[in-house]
Amino acid sequence: MQKETRINWVTTIFLILTPIVGIAGTIWLGISRGIPFPTWLLFLFMMFSTGIGITAGYHRLFSHRAYKASLPVRLFFLLFGGAAFQSSVLEWSSDHRIHHRYVDKEEDPYAITKGFWFAHILWLFKKREYTLQNIPDLREDKWIVWQHEYYLPIPIFMCFFFPGLIASFWGDFAGGVLVAGFLRLSINHHFTFFINSLCHFKGSQPFSDKHTAKDNWFLALFTYGEGYHNFHHEFQADYRNGIRFFDYDPSKWLIKTFALLGLAWDLKQIPDEQIFRKRVQMDEKRLRQKWEKASVPLPKDWESRLENRKRSLLERQAEWTAQKDSQDKNKTKEIESEFRSELKSWKRILSGDISSAFS
Ligand SMILES: [Zn+2]
Ligand SMILES: [Zn+2]
Fold first, then answer.
1. C-alpha 7 to ligand 1 mean position (Å)
2. Domain range spanning residue 315?
3. Which H/E stretch holds residue 171?
4. Residue 203 alpha carbon to ligand 2 centre in Å
């Protein structure tokens, strides 16, 4: 028990001091001599590359193995993800795999069930011991092990000195360190912490309500696309989090770009049919819960009728999936239109038109 309450002073002081230094330093530079425009561009570059180093790198590549990547890409993520100061890939991935396995339970390192602020930042203030038993695959990558062994010098250099050195090209070493280093680090910390707090707190659950993970497009804007967290917890092997082409998921787009350049391959993608089935099952569960409490009179056999509508929709969808690649275009069109009309009436039922479920 005593072990649980021990405070990790180094992390705690670091997480409290870095925003103070970042904000105060930026204000001081701004007032005393102004911050050159290229320093702000560097700030944005560091923001994006370290944030995506965590989401596309630490998270989707290393923790979930959602795709494979060449050495330059892996090194980029080890260096820039490291500059996000969120511990080594080995520790981060070990925690994250435990999070998925035991989500919302006692073992979940950042369980939202222990409170919003616990999931956001307070869990980091506690001293923890890592067994690193659940990441044997990652230990086989010598570069990941190298990053773990030299964990402190790598982020210290990449997070502070690297932007400082780049900014010295236009004579702004201090701006590089304070604005593109400290300020960027603190903002980025909280942007990624949102994934553990807000993405388990506010949003919709189109795929499952068996855990607290939520889909939230607004949060995707700040989390490099990880706002589609309900989908992610259901289909963690998928390299995407936002699955529709217009879903804001820059991590997905970066991975896809790497693939087009031949730098990434084996991108795992859950088949659309499987995602669709999960969604329909969740729709049905919601309807049942709603209708059980409904005040309007329902036919006695509403449960079996609803079940039939769902089955019929999934059958039409399976037929269409099987037919999609067929040469017989007319038949494909016919089956697709049957599926579309079944889907339309399912959506009518969802929108509250109970009578259409019984027509
Ligand atoms: Zn989660
Ligand atoms: Zn994950």
1. 24
2. 272-351
3. none
4. 17
